[in-house]
Amino acid sequence: MMRKVLRLAAVAIAAVVAWGIGTADAQVMDRILSAKKIKIGFIPSPPGTIKDSKSGELSGFYVDSVRLVFKQVNVEVEFVETTWAAFAAGLASGQFDLSIAGTFATVTRAAAVEFTKPISYLGYSAIIKKGDTRFKELADLNRDGIKIAVIQGGASVDYAKENFPKAQLVTLAGGNLLAPFVEVSAGRADVGIEDAWQARRYAKEQQGVTDLFDGRPYNVLPIGWSVKRGNDDLLKFMNTAIDWLMINDRFQKIAAGYGETGRYLAKIEYVPLGGPGEEKK
Predict the structure, then answer these.
(1) For all residues of the chain together, what is the average pLDDT?
(2) What is the domain range of residue 145?
(3) Could you tell me the maximum CA-CA distance found in the chain, to the nearest angstrom?
(4) Residue 195 sits in the same domain as residue 230
(5) I want to staple 91 with a disulfide (CB 3.0 to 4.6 A). Which of 46, 133, 167, 228 is the partner?
(6) Domain match, 62 and 187 both
(7) Is residue 135 part of a domain?
(8) What are phi and psi of 133, to 5 degrees?
(9) How far is residue 106's CA from residue 116's CA, in Å, rounded to a whole number?
(10) pLDDT digits (tens, 9 = 90+) for 61-99
(11) Is 89 found in the same domain as 154?
(12) Is 276 contained in some domain?
């Protein structure tokens, strides 16, 4: 009996030690604050993240916002470029600690990374050739013989598989969100799907195409930044930082410097705390 008790006690102690080690290893913010440096993954996606094609310099309201956050705690930011298909692996492998890719928070992705609270909301649209009368509503995309171009790793892929099973998906690698639309312009696809802001931007700049759902985006989803699963201390820090950015419109003011974003905010409505009556003495 005594041996059994001792054995159980040893197991319990080992579990506590293991838990303690795991907890210590999970303190990512301690490492970041100590080193005064953080690596942040990004994907070029104007106007949130803009990469100058000549100098490689980064700007955009995501970039400016995250720089402002870490300036408050005297932490230097180093940016690491990634893609939609690889950002989750980059977090898991420690290539970077935080991803500021404007990522649609979906159930599938939440199994691979942990999302911050939403920073904005955005929907999808589609680019077609001007004069193509086959498409008027979303259901029209679900047809045999239709080629739909999407970005590998993007949330549009899962949605297209679920809602347009009759169509043929043309899956494109890389991080260029305009690539599906280029496929339409080149005649290699009938429809190109990406976020509504990118579609509107492309339709304005390119002749011969139409933004099919201009002003009425579908599949509107929250957009969040992300961390490796289990990095709860960094996640809590970023959620607090996002609240700080949203209060008094810091995030809004930064974004305003980059013009129209096509994104939406969920505004907080403030109501008085407490009620009428005399103060208690």
Answers:
(1) 88
(2) 124-220
(3) 85
(4) no
(5) 228
(6) no
(7) yes
(8) -90, 5
(9) 12
(10) 999 999 999 999 999 999 999 998 899 999 999 999 999
(11) no
(12) no
